[in-house]
UniProtKB/TrEMBL annotation:
Residues 257-421 form the MmgE/PrpD C-terminal domain. Gene3D superfamilies: 2-methylcitrate dehydratase PrpD. Pfam families: MmgE_PrpD_C, MmgE_PrpD_N. InterPro entries: MmgE/PrpD_sf (IPR036148), MmgE/PrpD_sf_1 (IPR042183), MmgE/PrpD_sf_2 (IPR042188), MmgE_PrpD (IPR005656), MmgE_PrpD_C (IPR045337), MmgE_PrpD_N (IPR045336). This is 2-methylcitrate dehydratase PrpD.
């Protein structure tokens, strides 16, 4: 492994980070915690946290699971936390990885920090940035070097192993072994299988976080596994040569809705027409969507689970047309049988565009046509999802989303404590944040969500 990579993992300090990078680290941290709070009520989260409590007993290093309170091993807490965040597909992502980094990096880093009593808040923020930088590059490298499309867990594993090496203070040799172990055992699972048949396996994020944490501890014990091809292969050297100068944490996109990013351009195009023309869903005969191929593959019309609802183009688009918003409660199990939503989802005509396919993955574009019952046709401009890095949303919108997702399960005082702990993390230490996000939720797990996030409006280009 190159000296520059090792120096970046172990030598980067908070003072080395540009102000914009520090700000985005706090932004994604707040957003991830909000999505975790929203995801904790899902069946997926309940099952995986109970599994971690039973199967990942704490040894000498222990950590508490996100919004649960039970103590497990660091690997178990990383697994449960990554899958709890991924249970609600509302977290940040990256266009070129076609996936996510933060949803696995944050819970793994928190678990490692608890297990190893690493409480410096400025170092936590620095390590979070390191995780984004390494995970994003590993994801791009994997797409470049293999023909299959793998889930995010594959590159999350590499990032989490690097963070484990940093927290554990591994030397250069054992850091290299940790990265190699994580790449080899990372879940190179078939992403499009979960698109075509959505289940709780989702994006492999928790499994990748668990693998990366385990890889670091294995390397510390003398286990070998180098080299990591996605880091050391000559054909990806350019991706690693700009560590510390090209900050890829700034390239992540923000999600205003808790559904697959590929469904969001059609959703926003429809929502834009609804709002601009004051159209009620009952005025609409059917909706026509023109989009890109991967969005077309999100084909579940009548979801029976929240996973199917999150990996659908037609269902959340229909929800947006009927209700004017799409939040966690709208894709929850008890909200999947609305007759008007199902009418529009069933009748939706979805086709793909060669031009939109050619633009993918750097751009995700769609347009919508509302075919009204009186015969009129209203067509949107080409629309991209809100929150792309080229046009980031204001931080206040991220805060509103956090509060909306957290309100059903956390007291107002605790929500305020989390926001304050993140704002003061560099000087105040990690303990306050750790305590606030690892205690059990404050409300019953089946409590209805009384607050909805603001959709953010349509972005037309």
């Amino acid at each position: 492994m190159a000296h520059a990579f090792n120096e970046f993992v172990h030598g980067l300090r908070y003072d080395d980070l540009p102000a914009s990078v520090r700000d985005f680290a706090r932004r994604w941290l707040l957003d991830l915690i909000g999505v975790a709070a929203g995801g904790v009520r899902t069946d997926l989260s309940h099952i995986i946290r109970n599994h971690a409590a039973r199967q990942f007993g704490a040894g000498s290093g222990a950590a508490r699971m996100l919004f649960d309170g039970r103590v497990v091993s660091a690997a178990g807490a990383a697994l449960a936390g990554g899958m709890t965040i991924d249970a609600l597909d509302g977290h940040d992502g990256h266009k070129l990885t076609k996936g996510h980094v933060g949803c696995g990096v944050f819970p793994a880093l928190l678990a490692l920090s608890q297990a190893e009593n690493s409480t410096a808040g400025d170092d936590f923020l620095t390590a979070l940035v390191i995780g984004y930088e390494i995970g994003t590059r590993a994801g791009i490298a994997l797409h470049r070097t293999v023909p299959d499309y793998h889930t995010s867990g594959a590159w999350i594993a590499v990032a989490c192993a690097a963070l484990g090496a940093r927290v554990l203070g591994l030397d250069a040799v054992r850091t290299r072994e940790a990265i190699g172990i994580a790449e080899y055992h990372g879940p190179r699972s078939q992403m499009m299988r979960c698109i075509d048949a959505p289940t709780m396996v989702k994006d492999g994020s928790g499994w990748g976080a668990m693998t990366g944490v385990s890889a670091a501890y294995l390397a510390a014990a003398g286990f070998t596994g180098a080299p990591a091809v996605t880091v050391e292969a000559p054909e990806v050297a350019d991706l690693w040569s700009d560590l510390g100068s090209n900050w890829r944490i700034l390239e992540q996109y923000y999600k205003p809705f808790p559904v697959c990013r590929w469904a969001q351009p059609p959703l926003l195009a429809t929502l834009g027409l609804r709002d601009a023309h004051g159209i009620a869903s009952t005025d609409v005969d059917h909706i026509e969507i023109t989009t890109f191929h991967h969005s077309l593959r999100l084909a579940t019309r009548r979801p029976k689970t929240t996973e199917q609802a999150q990996y659908s183009t037609s269902f959340p688009t229909a929800v947006a047309m009927v209700r004017g918003h799409v939040g966690p409660d709208d894709i929850a199990l008890h909200n999947l049988s609305d007759r008007e939503v199902l009418r529009l989802s069933d009748s939706m005509v979805i086709t793909e565009s060669d031009d939109y396919n050619a633009a993918f993955p750097a751009r995700r574009i769609a347009h919508a046509t509302l075919v009204l019952k009186d015969g009129r046709r209203l067509t949107s401009p080409p629309t991209e999802a809100t929150g792309d890095p080229e046009n980031p949303v204001p931080m206040e919108q991220v805060r509103r989303k956090f509060r909306a997702y957290a309100t059903p399960v956390l007291r107002a005082e605790r929500i305020a404590d989390i926001e304050a702990a993140i704002a003061n993390l560099a000087t105040g230490g990690l303990d306050a944040l750790s305590t606030a996000v690892t205690g059990p939720i404050d409300e019953p797990a089946n409590a209805p969500a009384p607050v909805r996030p603001e959709p953010g409006g349509a972005a037309h280009r």
